[in-house]
TrEMBL record:
Residue ranges of domain Response regulatory in the record: 2-122
Matches recorded under Pfam families: GerE, Response_reg
Statement: the UniProt record of this protein carries the keyword Repeat: no
Keyword Transcription regulation: yes
Stored InterPro entries: CheY-like_superfamily, NreC/VraR/RcsB-like_REC, Sig_transdc_resp-reg_C-effctor, Sig_transdc_resp-reg_receiver, Tscrpt_reg_LuxR_C, WalR-like
Organism: Actinomadura rubrobrunea
Name used for this protein in its record: DNA-binding response regulator
Biological process according to GO: phosphorelay signal transduction system; regulation of DNA-templated transcription
Length: 219
């Protein structure tokens, strides 16, 4: 796995690089600006990019814009976004091209090495990894009338775990139920969110994006 890191905080940037190299992962380059990051992506053709949301010069959304451009240049590039806190619209642009190979973690998660590495590998393998704290905050937001109101409490739990990027087996283990029960809940979620089977749309991704959007996380 070849990795490029884009982070303007030198301590975090070098700390993450050291951690990954200690795990025998190939950190091809590190960058402290969006331009340097994109140059590194062009030069090294990485499998995964770890990108800070807020980068110079304005420290707003330069990291997200650079990640979008990197995926335009390198279709299929996996991106793990890091942020100091929950951003209201952290990846609407990034997710517009599909959720495969995308992750969003709070920076505090980096210190929890096992969880950080699990998210990194999940994203590198084409999956999705959403920080549990993001999902927790979404669940505490004021509810509004939507298709999500049709879901039962258990279906909300299943969809929240889907939003974290967990597969059916992991969801079953987390909720201490059978995989068959999880399949049934997911079928009900698809039906209640009006997501019929189609060759053009991944219903699992569509359900998660609907969940994030209607809970006020994407704008």
């Amino acid at each position: 796995m070849r990795i490029v890191i884009a982070e303007d905080d030198p301590l975090l940037r070098e700390g993450v690089a050291l951690l990954l190299r200690a795990e025998s992962l190939d950190v091809a380059a590190t960058a402290d600006t969006p331009d340097a990051f994109l140059a590194a992506v062009d030069a090294h053709d990485p499998d995964v990019a770890i990108v800070d949301v807020r980068m110079p010069p304005t420290h707003t959304d330069e990291g997200i814009k650079a990640a979008v451009e990197a995926r335009r240049r390198r279709p299929g590039l996996a991106v793990l976004v890091l942020s100091a806190y929950v951003e209201q619209a952290f990846a609407s642009e990034l997710l517009a091209g599909g959720a495969d190979g995308l992750g969003y973690l709070l920076k505090e998660r980096v210190g929890r090495v096992e969880q950080f590495l699990d998210a990194l590998h999940r994203v590198a393998n084409g999956g999705t990894a959403i920080d549990p704290e993001v999902v927790a905050q979404l669940l505490t937001r004021t509810r509004r009338t939507s298709a999500l109101d049709r879901l039962t409490a258990r279906e909300h739990e299943v969809l929240a775990l889907m939003a974290e990027g967990l597969g059916n087996t992991a969801i079953a283990e987390r909720l201490v139920v059978t995989e068959g029960a999880v399949h049934k809940h997911i079928r009900n979620i698809f039906a209640k969110l009006d997501l019929p089977p189609t060759d053009r749309t991944d219903r699992r991704v569509a359900a998660v994006l609907r969940y994030l959007e209607e809970k006020g996380h994407l704008s």
